[in-house]
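User: Predict the complex with magnesium ion.
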Amino acid sequence: MATNRTFTMIKPDAVEAGHIGGIINMITEGGFKIVAMKLTQLTVRDAQKFYEVHKERPFYGELVEFMSRGPIVAAILEKENAVEDFRKLIGATNPAEAAEGTIRKKYAKSIGENAVHGSDSDENAAIESAFHFAGREQF
Ligand code: RTP
Ligand code: MG
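Assistant: Here is the predicted structure with magnesium ion placed in the model:
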């Protein structure tokens, strides 16, 4: 597998709870190299756009409100097979179903407030990275 990149956010629930350090530690222990990172906050419009694929879902309004309510950490991560391996490291969307040793098992509170985001394809990783970081912020 070629080395490639994925995009992640530490979501507002985990930032509020003081888990930035713990989550970054799991990411680097998992073999991912951080090639961009910042503390930022999504506006309501940003969150609507970011999760536009879910706009017909019943949880969309709640998701937008949650994702814009406080600071997040946005980052780009590099590793062989990055997208798939990072989805494995974060675990299932619902923490009740997340495997032992995953970030969501350790830090997620619920299916809605689930601590971290991970891109679901190489194409979305590139789109999401460009949404948050200028070329000169990506190392
Ligand atoms: P993400 O995009 O944030 O990495 O999460 P995911 O792929 O595991 O899950 P996805 O289906 O893309 O859903 C996006 C986010 O919406 C919230 N959600 N709430 N209340 C609910 O039933 C529900 N389902 C999903 C979660 O924050 C989920 O991560
Ligand atoms: Mg998703």
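Residues 12 and 72 are 5 Å apart (CA to CA).
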